[in-house]
């Protein structure tokens, strides 16, 4: 999905562009004053949102009403981080015209923000600091952002 294969993922293409999603996450990081790779609960709380570690009845995935974020708890710290970030992504986009693809892209941007990605030579290197994101998601974000960076700066 992060590579742009929306048909395979049976998702509508995102409504927001890369720059828009990067800017939304960057603004949240500035607003909350916590390091980009901090525990996402700190970002959520500092952003004025209430974390609720159970899913809404009838909703199997993360959800938000713009004030609270619901997510299923798991002992897997990386997967828990992804769930919190995905709920936060939906909250960040709550007042935007957005779809699930936008929320997934924003989750990847929260997992490894573009502003810190260039510090790392690989996704595996980033994984040593990005303790609250699944390894597979870091790989997808790393590949996706590197492609975008190469497209803009290395190809004339
Ligand atoms: Zn979602």
Fill in the keyword field for this structure.
mainly alpha; 3-stranded mixed β-sheet; 3 strands
Main β-sheet description:
3 strands, mixed
Using the CA coordinates, give the radius of gyration: 15 Å
What string gives the helices and strands in order? HHEEEHHHHH
Mean of all residue-level pLDDT scores: 90
Number of strands: 3
Helix content: 40-55%
> Ions, cofactors, ligands: which are bound?
zinc ion
Q: Provide the number of structural domains.
A: 1
State the separation between the terminal residues, measured CA to CA: 26 Å
Largest beta sheet: strand ordering: 1-3-2
Low-pLDDT sequence parts: none
Secondary-structure-derived class: mainly alpha
Percentage of β-strand residues: 5-15%
Shape: globular
In short:
50% of the residues lie in helices and 5% in strands. It contains 7 helices and 3 strands. The protein has helices at residues 18-32, 40-46, 77-92, 100-111, 114-117, 123-127, 135-153; strands at residues 50-52, 63-64, 68-70.
How would you describe what is shown here?
It is a single chain. The protein has 156 residues and is mostly helical. It has one domain (18-149). The protein is built from seven helices and three strands; from the N terminus they run H-H-E-E-E-H-H-H-H-H. A three-stranded mixed β-sheet has the order 1-3-2. The longest helix is centred in the C-terminal third of the chain and has 19 residues, at 135-153. The model has no long low-confidence stretch (mean pLDDT 90). It binds zinc ion (ZN). Zinc ion (ZN) is lined by residues 61-62, 86, 90, 100, 103.
